[in-house]
Structures are given as structure tokens and as C-alpha cells.
């Protein structure tokens, strides 16, 4: 079996995430305790008890998801066997680099907390929004963004290529409102405004990008145990320096998720396991990796079912 690990991104968080895992496995409990100590706050309590509005804030959701993913990884690691490669959606790429041994958990946790804070600040500096367009081709979404941007000084770009027929756009609030109408007129099956604090993966994140670059400049990146597929290039990365550069570039670049999954399939991956809250990436694989088994592991019951116990 050629196994690939997948790690979810922002939006997968929910109140109660990881609590049953921490109750069942000491290594998971220690992971949440370690994170609380590192951050100097009871993020575990927020993850387990809410309120949801506070957990959803970018500065909280991003580290909370990484913690849950790493806790699940530590619980399941010995049971999973050899790993061929990994990938993570947006912030999930930090989790993937932890799995590969390139980033330590403390360094990744502090970086993700900082990343969330800077992304929120960039959204405050220049308010932006995002929306999902369903039922359009990637090229159609790109063309709509160009047309919407030409009409004014507002910016809107394609931000996430999640699966065939599912594209997320990101940009100035007025540009997003405009492109929603344009997408409907172009035959989109559905348009969904997203509840976010900024225009992620767009040029509006430039201030956050500069801050993250400075922060990661002081972080040690080690040789990975296996390749991680970059969101930016949809190609495997093994060079630590390139890993650092691409995590910075990622903030203003689209997440090429469908291409990333296809790259792993072309590498010979014949099983995917998603580690962390939710099962969004497993669901996307119904279109991105047809016929390849995909499993979501986020709690003890998932692990028991996966192992056939």
C-alpha cells in the first residue's frame, strides 16, 4: 500500500473537536496540554467547549485544527505504516510538514497562531471576503475574476481549486458581491458566500505574507521523511528551504488542491487518510481521486473502524 496523509484546513473546526480523542489516548491528551502550555492559553477548553464564535476566529481556528491533526497523527502513526507523501489544505500544509518531520510541533503551532493573527490583521486593514462557485470550470472562474477586476480597482482572484466544479474566489468585498451575480448569470449551479475575516489566498494578504516571511525566517526547517505536495505548485517538495518559501508564497497564491491530489495519484498513492477535524478532504476525493480509498480519522471510533477492530 502506498499511503498519503491529508490534513484539513480552516473551516473544519467544530466545538468538541478532539475531546474524545484526548479522553481515550494519553498521547492525544498530552498533545493538547503541550499546546496549551506553548500558547499560554487554554485552547483545548475553547476547542472542546466553545463558544463556536470564538473558536471560528482565524487566530483560534488555525492552531486548534493543527493541534487536533497532530494529536490524531500521534495516536495513529504506528498503525498507519509507511507514508509515501502528505499534503494539507492551506494551514493544513503546516500539519503535513510536522508529519514529515520538517517542522517541530512547537514551531508549527506558534507559526500557525502567528499566521492566523496576521491574516486577521490584513483583513482589518483591507476588508475582503470569499465565496464558493459550484458548477463552473476553473477557466470560467478565472475569466470571471479577470472581468470583475477590470470593471474597477477592486481585486478578485481564484483562491481555491478544490475539485472539478468547485472553485473559491477571494477579494475585495464589492468585487465578491459583483462576481456572485456574474457567476449566476454564467450558469453556476450554486454560489455560496463564505464567513471569513479576510480575502485569504489573494493579494490582499500581502501584509500578512511579509510578516509570516520574517517569522519563518527564524524557524528551523529539517529534511523531511517524505515529500509534501505544495499548495502553490501542486508538486512534491523535499527541500527545507523551498518548503519555507512556499509556505510564505501560499498566503497570496491559490490552493491547487485538485491538482495536488492528482499528483499524489500519479505518484502511485493507492490510499488516502485524512487526519484531523471533519472529513472535507475525504469528501472531495470522491471527485479528485475516484476509485482510490479515502478515510477520515478524527476520533477513536474512526480509528477502530479503520483498523477493523
What's the domain count?
A: 2
Task: Give a short account of the largest sheet.
Answer: 4 strands, parallel
Share of helical residues: 40-55%
| Gap from first CA to last CA | 19 Å
CATH fold group of the largest domain: Malonyl-Coenzyme A Acyl Carrier Protein, domain 2
Class derived from helix and strand content: alpha/beta
Low-confidence stretches: none
Q: What value does the average pLDDT take?
A: 96
Strand/helix succession: EHHHHHEHHEHEEHEHEEHHEHEH
What's the CATH architecture of the largest domain?
3-Layer(aba) Sandwich
**Order of strands, widest sheet:** 2-1-9-10
Give Rg in angstroms. 19 Å
Write a structural description.
The protein is α/β, with parallel strands linked by helices and about 300 residues long. The protein has two domains: about 220 residues, Malonyl-Coenzyme A Acyl Carrier Protein, domain 2 (3-Layer(aba) Sandwich); about 70 residues, Malonyl-CoA ACP transacylase, ACP-binding (Alpha-Beta Plaits, 2-Layer Sandwich), CATH 3.30.70.250. The chain contains 14 helices and ten strands. It has a four-stranded parallel beta sheet with strand order 2-1-9-10, sandwiched between helices. The protein has a four-stranded antiparallel beta sheet with strand order 4-5-3-6. A hairpin with a 6-residue loop joins strand 7 and strand 8. Helix 2 crosses helix 7 and helix 8 packs across helix 9. The longest helix is centred in the N-terminal third of the chain and has 23 residues. The mean pLDDT is about 95.
Amino acid at each position: 500500500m502506498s499511503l498519503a496523509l491529508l490534513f484539513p484546513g480552516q473551516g473544519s473546526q467544530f466545538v468538541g473537536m478532539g475531546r474524545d480523542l484526548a479522553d481515550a489516548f494519553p498521547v492525544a491528551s498530552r498533545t493538547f496540554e503541550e499546546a496549551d502550555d506553548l500558547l499560554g492559553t487554554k485552547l483545548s477548553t475553547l476547542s472542546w467547549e466553545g463558544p463556536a464564535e470564538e473558536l471560528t476566529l482565524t487566530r483560534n481556528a488555525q492552531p486548534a485544527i493543527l493541534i487536533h491533526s497532530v494529536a490524531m497523527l500521534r495516536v495513529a502513526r504506528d498503525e498507519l505504516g509507511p507514508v509515501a507523501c502528505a499534503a494539507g489544505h492551506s494551514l493544513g500544509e503546516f500539519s503535513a510538514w510536522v508529519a514529515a518531520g520538517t517542522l517541530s510541533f512547537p514551531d508549527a503551532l506558534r507559526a500557525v497562531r502567528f499566521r492566523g493573527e496576521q491574516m486577521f490583521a490584513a483583513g482589518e486593514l483591507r476588508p475582503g471576503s470569499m465565496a464558493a462557485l459550484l458548477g463552473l470550470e476553473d477557466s470560467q472562474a478565472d475569466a470571471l475574476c479577470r472581468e470583475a477586476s477590470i470593471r474597477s480597482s477592486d481585486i478578485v482572484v481564484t483562491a481555491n481549486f478544490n475539485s472539478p466544479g468547485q472553485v473559491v474566489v477571494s477579494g475585495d468585498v464589492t468585487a465578491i458581491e459583483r462576481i456572485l451575480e456574474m457567476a449566476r448569470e454564467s450558469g453556476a449551479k450554486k454560489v455560496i458566500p463564505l464567513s471569513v475575516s479576510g480575502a485569504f489566498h489573494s493579494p490582499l494578504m500581502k501584509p500578512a505574507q511579509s510578516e509570516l516571511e520574517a517569522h519563518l525566517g527564524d524557524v528551523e526547517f529539517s529534511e523531511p521523511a517524505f515529500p509534501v505536495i505544495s499548495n502553490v505548485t501542486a508538486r512534491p517538495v523535499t527541500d527545507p528551504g523551498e518548503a519555507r518559501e512556499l509556505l510564505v508564497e501560499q498566503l497570496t497564491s491559490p490552493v491547487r488542491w485538485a491538482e495536488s491530489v492528482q499528483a499524489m495519484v500519479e505518484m502511485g498513492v493507492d490510499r488516502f487518510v485524512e487526519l484531523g477535524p471533519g472529513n472535507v478532504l475525504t469528501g472531495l476525493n470522491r471527485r479528485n481521486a475516484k476509485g482510490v480509498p479515502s478515510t477520515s480519522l478524527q476520533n477513536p471510533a474512526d480509528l477502530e473502524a479503520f483498523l477493523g477492530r
